[in-house]
């Protein structure tokens, strides 16, 4: 129950940087330009909830050799100065005339030779976290250097977690386990769903979450229609199935799993659906070993929950997990990523019930040398009874 | 204490759309392409915490006449179907071969004449929430239609809040008021700062917050160094000044203000700094009427806190507030936005203390016909005593 130490050894950031630089050399890239929270944090350790403010852009440049360079608003200089980064270049943002653009372009020109290629994440699940006009301006200020796709360098590195990263995700999952165990204290007929959401988040915090960026869920008879809606003020009713799906954070790392609860005794259809969902996660869990591919996990789960091969609205049966609630890859038939030790995944099957209702179940696992290990405490066969 | 009704009348979304279309016509734009959470929500009412997942892109197209069109992953179809939007086009995301790109390009071609101009937010505080490679692909699929900057259309509309929006922000601020009143229950010498952060977030939830996307703060002797750091596990000490700055959400709208607390009796320097900060917010408050400009507020505050005109690391003394923790504009000397009724702002002065320490104070206001009105309950002159 004692959480691990916060932060990382400086050497971990050095290893991440050197691995990126080796991949950059192979791809002919002379720098990486990072603009989003997880990319910046991955190489620097810069952890703050201040990204909630969209005002100021933040940049990190990974040069071909040497340590990353931070090009950031002065408001972040003190916090960045507590990381392993020593080359910190700041401007006083927001600056309506030049919000860091000249400073960033100058830094890119400095570390990149003429005709060099600067890599920027441009593939699925990525975006560029700066104004489009700024990006277009920078492209004109590079004196012939090109800004091109990074070929997934950072995405591929983040896919495989270190032991220290896995420990943080496990800590988050254990906090959620304890909060889910306490749902019977707050979920009963008559309680507004919005109050259950508030109380559950407070339980997550009381059990040790640093914050609770994500909670979704639903409550309805014989399943629910939707897994991404916010809570309404409608009260829980006898016979409802309540689903709570949380992504809480400990030291910057997420868990992401859900649990289904019955308000009163569950009916046979929902019990059977829950059993099927659990069977599906175990079918994937058994196959989740180094050398297997993601599509194996998809087919193992889909064979249990969806033998007819119907279209699924969710679009996938799980995904990567770490510094973000959802990460690369997606557990779909089209994904042939080979599993290696250190990957962290969610297994998230869903089943269709009558009346367009669904039920969803989710567990978190890590791939180890000889097979998978649960990070969430895997649920047993029955729908939990809450109210 | 009874919160207002959740959601908005459908007519409010119609008015927002028609206002955008009038501005589009003036600027010669034949469509808007929206990609970020606040833009999509502003025109549709689509409210979900699912944006925490970066996997799937979400698009809304505002045509030159008629209602917005949603081009979204099928997982969101049910929730979008509960808004006023009826033209909802979906694909099963994630699709590694075409993640909505053809469907979006087809929709843009359909609503926009040949050689039409499609506006995309590209200025400060904005970004494009889709993979850069997808954006570049779409540009090649528009048969001569251009994707250009939107000239700040959505930003300018969002700047002025409706009464219903102001009511939601006020509700959020009143929840934070009550949570701040209860800080003495949780902050005392020996309590780890990380536990104070957890407990404070739980108090926000208990007082009615839907969620707490933002909490930053610090605790140190005679002020603090930083206002964006996450909490450490270090215990509060007698003589510390504790600052908590929260952006909590009610029905999709933020408050954003802080309070300073003393663990034990505050010293004269921090008392004097607090008084100066409060004087600064009142100096700006008095001027905050329709017809005044943002730089007036800056100079009013800066004259109180910074008569020597020293460089400020924070870069600004407040900002807009609404669907996001921070919104356009920034309270800086360079901003000459004219205040109009319905703008919601934070007033956020900071002062320098000895030893590179600072103190920050923040209130939330709305501009009314004859002057400003506080949304947060304005703090009186003294540092609050917590522990």
From TrEMBL, chains A, B:
GO molecular function, one term: aminopeptidase activity
Residue ranges occupied by any Creatinase N-terminal domain in the UniProt entry: 16-160
Record-annotated membrane-spanning stretches: none
Protein origin, superkingdom: Bacteria
Gene3D superfamilies: Creatinase/methionine aminopeptidase superfamily, Creatinase/prolidase N-terminal domain
Coiled-coil segments: none
Domain Peptidase M24: 168-368
Protein name: Metallopeptidase M24-like protein
Organism: Octadecabacter arcticus 238
Lineage: Bacteria, Pseudomonadati, Pseudomonadota, Alphaproteobacteria, Rhodobacterales
């Amino acid at each position: 129950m004692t959480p691990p130490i916060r932060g990382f050894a400086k050497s971990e950031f050095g290893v991440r940087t050197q691995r990126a630089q080796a991949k950059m050399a192979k791809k002919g890239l002379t720098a990486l330009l990072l603009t989003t929270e997880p990319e910046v944090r991955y190489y620097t350790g810069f952890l703050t909830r201040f990204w909630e403010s969209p005002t100021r852009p933040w940049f990190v440049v990974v040069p071909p050799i040497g340590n990353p360079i931070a090009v950031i608003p002065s408001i972040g200089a003190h916090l960045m100065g507590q990381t392993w980064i020593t080359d910190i270049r700041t401007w006083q943002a927001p600056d309506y005339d030049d919000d860091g653009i000249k400073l960033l372009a100058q830094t890119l020109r400095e570390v990149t030779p003429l005709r060099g290629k600067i890599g920027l994440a441009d593939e699925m699940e990525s975006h560029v976290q700066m104004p489009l006009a700024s990006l277009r301006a920078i492209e004109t200020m590079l004196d012939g250097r090109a800004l091109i796709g990074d070929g997934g360098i950072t995405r591929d590195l983040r896919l495989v977690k270190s032991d220290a990263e896995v420990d943080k995700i496990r800590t988050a999952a254990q906090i959620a386990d304890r909060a889910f165990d306490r749902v019977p204290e707050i979920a009963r007929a008559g309680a507004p769903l919005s109050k259950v959401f508030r109380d559950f988040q407070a339980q997550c915090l009381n059990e040790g979450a640093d914050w609770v960026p994500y909670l979704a869920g639903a409550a309805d008879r014989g399943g629910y229609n939707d897994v991404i809606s916010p809570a309404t003020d409608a009260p829980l009713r006898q016979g409802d199935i309540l689903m709570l799906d949380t992504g809480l954070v400990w030291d910057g790392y997420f868990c992401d799993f859900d649990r289904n609860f019955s308000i009163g005794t569950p009916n046979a259809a929902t019990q059977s659906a829950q059993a099927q969902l659990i069977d599906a996660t175990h079918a994937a869990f058994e196959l989740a070993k180094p050398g297997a591919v993601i599509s194996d996990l998809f087919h193992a789960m889909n064979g249990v929950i969806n033998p007819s091969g119907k279209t699924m609205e969710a679009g996938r049966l799980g995904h990567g997990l770490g510094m973000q609630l959802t990460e690369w890859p997606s557990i779909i038939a089209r994904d042939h990523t080979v599993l290696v030790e250190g990957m962290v995944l969610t297994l998230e099957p869903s089943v269709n019930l009558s009346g367009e209702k669904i039920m969803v179940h989710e567990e978190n696992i890590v791939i180890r040398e000889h097979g998978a290990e649960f990070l969430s405490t895997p649920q047993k066969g029955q729908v939990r009874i809450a109210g």
